[in-house]
# Entry
Amino acid sequence: MAKQQIVIVSEMMDPHADDMIQMLRRMGHAPIRLNTDEIPYQTTMSFRLGNGAWNGEIAIHSNGRTIDVADIRSIWWRRPGPYALPDDLSLQQREFAQEEINQALLGLLSSLDCYWISFPANIRHANHKLNQLKRAGELGFDVPRTIVSTTPEHVHDFYELCGGQMIFKVLTDPSLAAHKVASMQQDRSTQTVRSTPTTLITAAHLQMLDSIRTTPCLFQEYVPKRVELRVTVIGNQVFAAEIHSQHDQSAVVDWRLGDHVRYEAATLPPDLTERCLAFVRSYGLNYSAMDFIVTPDGRYVFIENNPNGQFMWVEKLIPQLEMTTAMATCLIQGSN
# Structure
């Protein structure tokens, strides 16, 4: 008998998971949501190894549902957050409990024969920007000239090589790890969240290059834009959105800063579509959101890959890109 359960692993405040659950229900299915911020106190778990396989359950007390680990058809590893550990634990105790839960939960799920969007280890691998840029070049994408360095002199030389047109981007979290720090603090009301957008480097910035000696920094040549693209791969389908950032002065360097950016559906050249699919598959992913620049002379320049990036905001702006339906269909079909 075919496995039936569709599991969405996320956290309580996640509109993406909310919308996906509604879509799956409209399509006649009853997904089970596992919120990591309800672990351990709103869940219990028990697994037993027998006949070469794990059997058991994760009971979710907040919604009365039970995950039968032998009946999982597909898993959407959507947005798991920190576990809800007691505030009175010491930092060492919290770290130990976190690691033990990770070992139990991820160890179990990774042993299952089911469909993933996408397998956590593959997401982590595909999230490394330096690996992305190298792989994109190997697959025939046009990639920007890039330097990652803690040597101010090398970055200054690269700035000159780029004709004074160079941008800075963080390698990891634009919020500078604020959310991770907040999850470790008992008093979270004092946490200030700052964000670092893509920044066009000026002569004034060059005077502060000594600050890069502490942490490796990524700099790229600034690529002129006609439009930007958000390309989302779901299963075997490719959805493309044009981001008209250059008509909004505040969004010229980083489209996320704009208030009046226009979004439209786009049609990709067939060879670019195939390269996008090949790129995502090369990491063993069933989902990814990729960013490109289309230059004034028509070149498609790969910027980065977001292996677990958002997509519903694009669909809300461009409803004809029916990505929620595509994602739900993949989860329903599973690996069959």
Observations:
- The mean pLDDT is 91.
- The CA atoms of residues 90 and 96 lie 10 Å apart.
- The first strand starts at residue 5 and ends at 10.
- DSSP finds ten helices and 16 strands in the chain.
